[in-house]
Design goal:
mainly alpha
Length: 871
């Protein structure tokens, strides 16, 4: 029975097939046109159009292009205009060079009449010729001659000054000449509207009259700044109402350069003013520049409007803030600029265009960021300065906070740093507290969501970037294409969280800096920093896991608490009493936070930090008892022992593993302290083995802790034997190995699936490895022989019963024992061989291994599989 699709489905299928046929037809037409063009002889020069005798096709077989009749012959392309432009450019350049050479070299050999006649005739001809050429349609040639005429007019100015007015001031003459030439070329460009060069040239010439006039008059720097600003305003007017893109682009570039120069002049004069009255003049210049930039941004396109707003905002801050800053000391000037920058936020109520207002707000943010950048290095010095106390622990309490930091910063010039941080923190905190009001105020500056309209081409080709949504009333979009340039803006909750986090961090930094600026006593500084850590912990505990969306605040509090704890811990190292008090308080605070917090990650961080502070306390106890480092090592194991008990209590709690790993690191520190004394090292290793065995009691930790405990016990035994200078370790190891092997045999009988490493590994290693270590230093032959025989027997048993532990341990010991016996002979043979032979043999070996690499790799894999199948 034949299936008949619904009409809608059948129509869609027909449309797809027709589209495929159209595309195939277009490809075939393109190929046919190419073949006909390849077979057709060169056509005679004739007017393009309809040729009934020709069987051709359009040169372009693009899909969707309008069909042309077969007799159509396309117009042959003309010669590339690039070659014409190159020729005209070279010709104009050569003529300009000739004119310069004539003016500079041959000018003096002619009389005044000849000079005037030649100069007037050439210049006039160069100015008239473009008009004639434009009427004949030779626009490119006219442009080349116009460029020549521009050069000639410049040479005319030079010649007039050199001959007719040699005694006039060069700067003043240049100012007048540039103004006259600017007017002349403006009129010339307007008269010959088709030329593209004269009007941009007039704009370039208009940049110099006011500047050279102020320079010639010996005007002060402030007047020069006004001249630059007036020129920039003129450029802005030209850029707004100028004729043609070339004129506007040139005016924009010139206005940007002149405006930037004016701003730099005003800023330099404002910052170096001796008082408020001296800063008033540069402030007026900067305010005028701000007004000009804002006026230019009023109706400018989006990007230019934002740039203009930024420039206007920064100029206004420099203008208004420079007046009070001139009356303040160096340490407080930044506060004046910061207050002015914050006042710019009122632009949201000023009714400015949206993009210009955004630029002004960006300028406000830039000022605030600059003030923070100025203040943050001092905060870094407060946090990192106590690191210097590590070189002289418990040397005695310093007099004040500054002396404990060891920093050479000029704190008297940084008096405004805590005020800056506190002010910004207060504003961010206010925004966090009253966020809905802030959103309502800045809502007019929000971005409009614009959806690009799809066109026919994008609908046919599926162009990326088109965003189609469902028509009104539809339940869901029927077609959506995500644009490649789409940007995800942060949500309101994320912005609010960032504001709260910034307020918290900056407020904490302000309090720290206030203590340094005031140089509070050392005890007050230590107590204050510890209290701040406690406050941050409280905020982190209260905010973590609250589910209110402001996750940035508790995370910032957590990071600040840990950072502050490290800083105050280092700061407390100057005094023994302060060190005990601070680290004891930190241990209790972080442990309490770990108990109270609900979220898993903060709880793990707090628990780990508490273990670290407790470990440091045990180290302090050893120092207070005047113990050597190796003697204090057993004391350091107290905290790892507590972590073992705590892990047994927490069991499968996610916090248990981080706590136990931190305790293991503490045990590793204890081992490092005891390395210098072998007996204490053996004791510490044995104690660590006891702790590992206690952890191995738990089934979930047994696979790792069991092996670790066995290895630590064996290692402790070896270290103890080495420390006692025992020459016959077998007397001590065999009584341990035999019962261990008996226990292993019983374990294998009860559980045939048990691993041979668990059953026999500890017993074999307890005797074989110490005996091997002694055999390598034993000059007698008996021990190596007996050890080799025992290793051979163990290896054969492992191969016979397919026991991996016996095979590996026995084989390794046998190989090393044999190498020990062969070492003297190898050394003797190596000494008798030529020196070039060992490298040659090594190279030959590498070549052989490389040539048979794949086979060796397969052999190694087979060996690995065979060992893996053993127990």
């Amino acid at each position: 029975m034949e299936h008949v699709p619904p009409p809608a489905e059948e129509l869609a299928r027909l449309d797809r097939e027709l589209a495929e046929l159209d595309a195939r037809r277009a490809q075939l037409l393109t190929r046919r046109a190419w073949l006909l063009a390849a077979l057709r002889p060169p056509a005679p020069t004739a007017a393009p159009g309809w040729n009934p005798s020709a069987w051709g096709a359009p040169p372009s077989g693009r899909p969707g292009a309008p069909a042309q009749p077969w007799g159509y012959v396309p117009k042959q392309p003309s010669a590339p205009r690039s070659a014409q432009n190159v020729l005209l450019t070279l010709g104009g350049l050569l003529l300009a060079v000739a004119a310069v050479a004539f003016t500079l070299v041959s000018w003096g050999s002619m009389g005044i009449g000849g000079r005037s006649a030649v100069l007037a005739a050439v210049t006039l001809g160069a100015l008239i010729a473009p008009a004639v050429l434009l009427r004949r349609g030779l626009a490119a040639t006219a442009e080349a001659l116009a460029a020549l005429a521009l050069v000639l007019t410049l040479l005319d100015v030079y010649a007039v000054h050199a001959v007719a007015a040699p005694d006039t001031d060069g700067l003043g003459f240049t100012a007048v000449a540039s103004a006259v030439l600017a007017v002349l070329w403006t009129a010339y460009g307007l008269a010959l509207g088709k030329l593209r060069l004269p009007l941009p040239a007039a704009v370039v010439l208009a940049q110099w009259p006011l500047l050279f006039w102020a320079w010639a008059a010996g005007a002060p720097a402030l007047v020069v700044g006004w001249a630059l600003l007036a020129t920039a305003v003129l450029d802005g007017v030209i850029a707004r109402w100028g004729k043609g893109p070339g004129v506007r682009v040139t005016a924009c570039v010139g206005g940007s350069a002149m405006g930037f120069s004016a701003l730099m002049v005003g800023l330099a004069l404002s910052t170096t003013a001796s008082g408020p009255l001296g800063a008033a003049g540069p402030g007026a210049l900067l305010l005028a520049a701000a007004a000009a930039a804002l006026a230019g941004a009023w109706r400018a396109p989006k990007g230019f409007a934002r740039t203009g707003g930024v420039v206007a905002g920064l100029a206004a801050v420099a203008a208004v803030g420079g007046v009070p800053a001139a009356a303040l000391s160096d340490g407080w000037r930044v506060l004046a600029y910061l207050l002015c920058g914050l006042a710019l936020a009122g632009v949201v109520r000023a009714g400015l265009p949206r993009d210009a207002a955004r630029g002004v707000l960006a300028a406000s943010g830039a000022v605030v960021a600059g003030a923070l950048v100025w203040a943050l290095p001092s905060l870094a010095a407060v946090l990192l300065g106590p690191v210097t106390l590590l070189s002289d622990v418990w040397a005695g309490s310093p007099e004040g906070f500054r002396s404990a930091l060891g920093s050479t910063l000029p704190w008297s010039e940084l008096a405004a740093a805590p005020v800056v941080l506190a002010l910004v923190a207060g504003l961010l905190g206010s925004a966090y507290r009253w966020w809905p009001s802030v959103v309502r105020i800045v809502a007019p500056l929000g971005a409009r969501e614009e959806t690009p309209k799809p066109d026919a081409a994008s609908s046919a080709a599926g162009t990326p970037g088109a965003a189609w949504t469902a028509p009104p009333g539809a339940g869901a979009p029927w077609y959506t294409v995500s644009g490649a340039g789409a940007r995800r803006r942060p949500s309101g909750a994320a912005l609010r969280g960032a504001a709260g986090a910034g307020a918290l961090a900056l407020g904490w930094g302000a309090l720290l800096l206030a203590g340094v600026v005031l140089d509070v006593p050392y005890a007050v500084a230590v107590a204050g920093e510890t209290a701040l850590v406690g406050g941050l912990l409280a905020l982190a505990v209260r905010g973590a896991g609250s589910g209110r969306g402001a996750s940035a605040v508790p995370v910032t509090a957590l990071v600040g608490a840990v950072s502050g704890a490290v800083s105050v811990g280092l700061l407390s190292l100057a005094s023994e009493g302060a060190a005990y008090a601070v680290f004891g308080a930190l241990t209790v605070l972080f442990a309490g936070a770990a108990v109270r917090v609900r979220a898993e990650v903060p709880r793990a961080v707090f628990a780990v930090a508490s273990v670290v502070w407790g470990t440091v306390l045990t180290g302090f106890a050893g120092r207070s008892l005047d113990l050597d480092p190796h003697e204090a090592a057993p004391l350091v194991l107290l905290v790892p022992a507590l972590t073992v008990l705590l892990g047994a209590r927490l069991r499968r709690n996610p916090v248990a593993l981080p706590v136990e790993l931190t305790g293991a690191l503490g045990a590793l520190v204890a081992v490092g302290l005891a390395v210098s004394d072998a007996p204490f090292l053996a004791l510490v290793l044995a104690l660590c083995g006891v702790l590992a065995a206690g952890v191995a009691v738990r089934p979930e930790r047994r696979p790792v802790a069991g092996y670790l405990a066995a290895a630590l016990f064996v290692l402790a035994t070896w270290v103890r034997l080495a420390a006692s200078e025992v020459s016959f370790p077998e007397a001590y190891t065999l009584p341990v190995s035999v019962p261990a092997l008996v226990v292993g045999v019983l374990r294998r009988r009860g559980d045939p699936e048990a691993s041979s490493w668990t059953a026999y590994g500890p017993g074999l290693a307890a005797t074989l490895l110490p005996s091997l270590a002694v055999a390598w230093t034993d000059a007698d032959w008996l021990r190596p022989l007996l050890l080799g025989v025992a290793a051979l027997v163990i290896t054969l048993l492992g191969a016979r019963h397919r026991l991996q532990a016996l095979l590996v341990l026995g084989g390794v010991v046998l190989a090393l024992d044999g190498l020990h016996e062969l070492a003297p002979y190898v050394a003797q043979v190596a000494g008798a061989l030529p020196r070039w032979l060992p490298p040659a043999l090594a190279g030959l070996l590498l070549l052989v291994v490389g040539a048979t690499y794949e086979q060796r790799l397969r052999d190694a894999r087979r060996l690995k599989d065979a060992l893996g199948r053993m127990r």
